[in-house]
Amino acid sequence: MAKCRINTGPMMTGISYMIPVICLGGILQSFGTMLGGSSVGSDTTSFAGMLYAGGTISMNMVVPVLAAYIAYGICDRPGIAPGLMIGVLSVNYKIGFVGGIIGGYAVGYFLRFMKEKIPLNKNLQSLMPLLILPILGGLFSILLMDYVVGPLLGGLQSFLVGLFAELQAGPRIVFGLVMGAMMGVDFGGPVTKIATTVANGLVADGVLGPEGAKVCCGIVPALGLGLATFLFPQKFTRAERATGPSTIVLGCAQVGEGGLPYLLRDPLHVMPAGIAGSAVTGAIAMFFNVGSPVMMGGFFAFPVMQNIFPGAFIAVAAGVAVEILLVALIKKTVTGEDELDELSGLDDASGDVDFEISIEEG
Questions:
Q1: What pLDDT is attached to residue 356?
Q2: How confident is the model at residue 341 (pLDDT cuts 50, 70, 90)?
Q3: What is the dihedral of CA 223, 224, 225, 226, to 10 degrees?
Q4: Element (H, E) at 11
Q5: What distance in Å separates the CA atoms of residue 11 and residue 18, rounded to the nearest whole number?
Q6: Kind plus residue range of the DSSP H or E element containing 216
Q7: Element (H, E) at 150
Q8: Distance between CA atoms of 45 and 36, rounded to whole angstroms?
Q9: Cα 208 from Cα 172, distance rounded (Å)
Q10: What gap in Å lies between CA 343 and CA 233, rounded to an integer?
Q11: Number of Cβ atoms within 10 Å of the Cβ of 193
Q12: pLDDT per residue over 177-201, tens digit each?
């Protein structure tokens, strides 16, 4: 039997460094929204506006940090600067953590290959990690993102944004269902951005329903997974259980990225749960015509939203319940091998990690 296995150690390294950045940005944005209300995004002088702006800066650093430390997990320190660059380019192209993961792996293995193949005199070896490899990695990052990954994923995303925008002319419950499902696919990634771009644009036209549903849907993925770590601990690794409380807080603050460590480790089982939970939430929120003039905040934004009781609370509670139920039904129980795999990624960040493809006969 053929078995193909891609070692996830570098990605777990990137996630471990990414989580504190997500926590900082999400909480700052939520507190800013709670203190500054619906106009906080355009307020640059008040304390609330500065909190929100600081949170936005931190959230923009999430993908660069993820990409940088994925590359670091593969080729050590020479990968950090090129990884940061390719992560920033992913943000600029609006392709999120998918671009960051692809770019981080690509630049990491490129530099590892160059490190082994470039012949240098012993007197020049000291220049390799400080100058030669970072420059080569930077050039590789620019070419890869500007000519391959960025145009492909960015063009696809632009096409899908236009396609999804046409749905808002149809039944609002169907629109909420589709938007929620999209937000449950990647927890703040490029598919989520398709839905949120349309919802954010409608706010400018005075249509607040999709934005209200978006806020509710944004709470569900991380909150549901965080609660599931307490209700069904056997489904999660020790590291995942340890981050459960922070994931709950991030979910309450509408930071879907808080669920990324769970999604990236086990996408085949976590993604369906996230899709179903968020879809239910979106449909119920649109049914009750929950509206929001703000784009961020989660529960902290509820005081400035419309029709939150009972609509928003029912929508979030139903979505979280569906997600937890599906996690319990379809997610596999963690084994000792799973624990070792995760520890190898989080605790041995500086070690070399190989891309493994093994063929087993049986």
A1: 42
A2: low
A3: 50
A4: helix 9-36
A5: 10
A6: helix 209-231
A7: helix 150-165
A8: 11
A9: 12
A10: 17
A11: 20
A12: 999 999 999 888 888 888 888 888 8
